């Protein structure tokens, strides 16, 4: 571990960066630059999650991983298709913020299938430290840090503890970055340095959402190849792409495939589903289900990609504000245009208390009025359609010409 003085300087730097209102690209780049002063590494990979399912929505890579995308599908299948104590979902379930593979496996990092089948033979990474960026029960991202070479110095207990102590601060920075992407008016921040795979999740809200033709349906065979797809699927897949490598397009999807197989075998009780923002600025929901053939063979998976309904995305945005339970109740009623006195009656509090809640909500959301709060939550994907009728499912009715 670096000196305690350096560690404290890094901690203060990260506090400043987390509260600076940066978009995700800039925030993660600054975070890596700071962290690696205290915990030297050869490579870093940061993945953002859907906080409901801890499934990957995007990845950014630094150091010797820069530009390395071709094994991303294998990583997704290993990470979400098997049970390991160091997998992000298992770490979140155990409320474990940081681990070191060498420490966890008592010097035998190869006990991890992720290490023995991918990281060691492909990249010569012989130790990994992982950090979950968690705020309460919600995990917003994960950071994996690697050291190369069979004789590399393993991550020690002090380094792992230091990383774990930064979990909540870094989670706050991710929430701020997510909100920055929701209301951005220009193109992405374009921070130089990392390779980013997976869908765009910053700075594209000004773009017009792609017009779709209903859900895209993909059939994945046991060899993890797409064998069938519905009409319009290429458009949906293209909207998930942000990098030139074809594997990058499928980055979130392969995690879903692995998770679907675990779900189908009864090893997981969490339905494989995530919310993610496409390159067009449109929020999409991707979910996967295991299939079984007539002869009883298993392994095939159906993946569906469709436009997210407002009820699916609004809670994600509201969660990113970091509201208390009571503030979320007030916000829900504001979205329903309930008057202050009626909110007070429903919650059995005074109108002055409701006003106090509203002031706190406005501060956290960075707005000054109910109108601005509603505009910030109903961002451009839905704002232009707010006068359209809603179906019973919560989806907007199809516009003329849409299926």
From TrEMBL:
Residues 316-387 form the HTH luxR-type domain. The keyword ATP-binding does not apply. GO terms for molecular function: DNA binding. GO terms for biological process: regulation of DNA-templated transcription. Keywords: DNA-binding, Transcription, Transcription regulation. The keyword Disulfide bond does not apply. PANTHER family: DNA-BINDING TRANSCRIPTIONAL ACTIVATOR DEVR_DOSR (PTHR44688). This is Helix-turn-helix transcriptional regulator.
């Amino acid at each position: 571990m670096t000196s305690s003085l350096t560690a404290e300087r890094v901690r203060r730097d990260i506090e400043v960066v987390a509260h600076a209102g940066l978009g995700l690209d800039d925030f993660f780049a600054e975070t890596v630059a700071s962290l690696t002063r205290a915990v030297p590494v050869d490579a870093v990979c940061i993945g953002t999650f859907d906080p409901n399912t801890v499934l990957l929505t995007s990845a950014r890579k630094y150091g010797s991983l820069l530009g390395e995308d071709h094994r991303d599908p294998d990583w997704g299948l290993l990470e979400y298709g098997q049970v390991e104590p160091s997998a992000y979902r298992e770490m979140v379930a155990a409320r474990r913020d940081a681990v070191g593979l060498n420490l966890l496996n008592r010097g035998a990092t190869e006990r991890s299938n992720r290490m023995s089948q991918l990281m060691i033979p492909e990249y010569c990474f012989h130790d990994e430290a992982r950090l979950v960026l968690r705020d309460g029960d919600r995990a917003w991202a994960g950071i994996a840090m690697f050291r190369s070479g069979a004789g590399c110095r393993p991550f020690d207990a002090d380094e792992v503890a230091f990383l774990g102590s930064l979990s909540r601060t870094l989670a706050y920075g991710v929430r701020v970055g997510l909100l920055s992407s929701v209301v951005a008016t220009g193109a992405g921040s374009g921070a130089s340095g990392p390779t980013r795979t997976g869908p765009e999740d910053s700075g594209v809200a000004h773009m017009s959402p792609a017009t779709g033709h209903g859900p895209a349906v993909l059939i994945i065979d046991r060899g993890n190849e797409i064998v069938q797809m519905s009409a319009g699927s290429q458009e949906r897949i293209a909207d998930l792409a942000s990098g030139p490598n074809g594997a990058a397009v499928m980055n979130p999807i392969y995690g879903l495939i692995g998770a679907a197989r675990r779900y189908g075998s009864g090893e997981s009780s969490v339905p494989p589903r995530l919310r993610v923002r496409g390159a067009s600025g449109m929020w999409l929901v991707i979910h996967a289900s295991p299939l079984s053939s007539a002869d009883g063979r298993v392994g095939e998976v159906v993946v569906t990609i469709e436009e997210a309904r407002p009820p699916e995305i609004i809670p994600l945005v509201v969660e990113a504000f970091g509201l208390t339970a009571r503030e979320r109740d007030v916000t829900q009623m504001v979205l329903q245009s309930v008057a202050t006195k009626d909110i007070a009656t429903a919650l059995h509090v005074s109108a002055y208390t409701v006003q106090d809640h509203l002031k706190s909500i406005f501060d956290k959301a960075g707005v000054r009025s109910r109108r601005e709060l509603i505009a910030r939550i109903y961002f451009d994907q839905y704002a232009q359609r707010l006068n359209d009728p809603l179906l019973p499912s919560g989806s907007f009715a199809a516009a003329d010409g849409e299926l």
